[in-house]
Design brief:
This protein is an alpha/beta fold. It contains eight helices and twelve strands. The chain has a single domain, classed as Rossmann fold, CATH 3.40.50. Helix 2 crosses helix 7 and helix 6 packs across helix 7.
């Protein structure tokens, strides 16, 4: 893959992550950044999400078929095994409370060290409330709403700074970041992991997405990733 990136020449690299799974685009982001060329990421914001035919408090939208289980994303595996006292869990919330519950059961963080992040503003004005309602049961079970944080749903850099704030409050802790919510938030988490190395672990449940889970497109967003994260801000490889 490095040879392919090098063959593209010295111009700007554009990567459209809209239709790609996290396990595909996240390694490409790392490789493209390491190539040292100008690098932009493209994302098409969906117009609508497919609503569940039988909505309930934990499933307002019909987005996923199944959860295949927690497994590392290629090039983002962490070998830093910390005790639970040395971990903060930061789930990036979407609409699916069942995915948050699954991650909490797998990670088993201390309740006081759970820092959920919701996208505010959302792609639509009501999406932040939908996300909160969709995750209300696990948030209440772990009393995690007291640590709720916010970042713009379509901005990876807003998410990056939200993670930076949590890290600054717990400088000796490893951040385990759960990828559930928007793809721009996932991009921000990946950039944060590249910037901070073993201080960050990406947690992903390898969910199987439903076909036709979204319809239409709203805005086309282009992120200047290499400008935001130059080599001086990245952890040593």
């Amino acid at each position: 893959m490095q040879d392919f990136i090098a063959s593209l020449g010295c111009g700007t690299i554009y990567l459209d992550i809209t239709g790609l799974g996290h396990a595909t685009w996240a390694p490409l982001v790392r490789i493209c950044l390491e190539a040292g060329q100008p690098f932009r990421v493209i994302y098409l914001e969906p117009d609508t999400y497919n609503e569940s035919p039988a909505p309930d408090a934990g499933q307002i939208f019909d987005l996923s078929d199944r959860i295949d289980g927690i497994a590392p994303i290629p090039l983002f595996a962490s070998l830093d095994d910390r005790a639970e006292d040395d971990i903060c869990f930061v789930p990036l919330l979407g609409f699916e409370g069942v995915r948050l519950s699954h991650m909490l059961n797998e990670v088993q963080p201390l309740a006081k060290k759970i820092y959920p992040i919701i996208g505010v503003p959302g792609f639509r004005p009501h999406y932040p409330l939908d996300a909160y309602l969709g995750n209300a049961a696990p948030l209440e079970k772990y009393k995690a709403a007291r640590n709720l944080r916010f970042a713009r749903s379509n901005c990876p850099f807003s998410l990056f700074y939200a993670l930076e704030d949590i890290r600054n409050r717990h400088p000796s802790q490893q951040l385990k970041v759960g990828l559930i919510g928007t793809k721009p938030h996932a991009l921000g988490a990946i950039l944060f992991a590249i910037a901070h190395g073993d201080e960050v672990e990406i947690v992903y449940d390898n969910v199987k997405r439903k076909v036709g889970r979204t319809a239409g497109t709203a805005r086309c967003l282009v992120y200047g990733v290499s400008d935001f994260l130059p080599p001086s801000r990245r952890a040593a490889a």
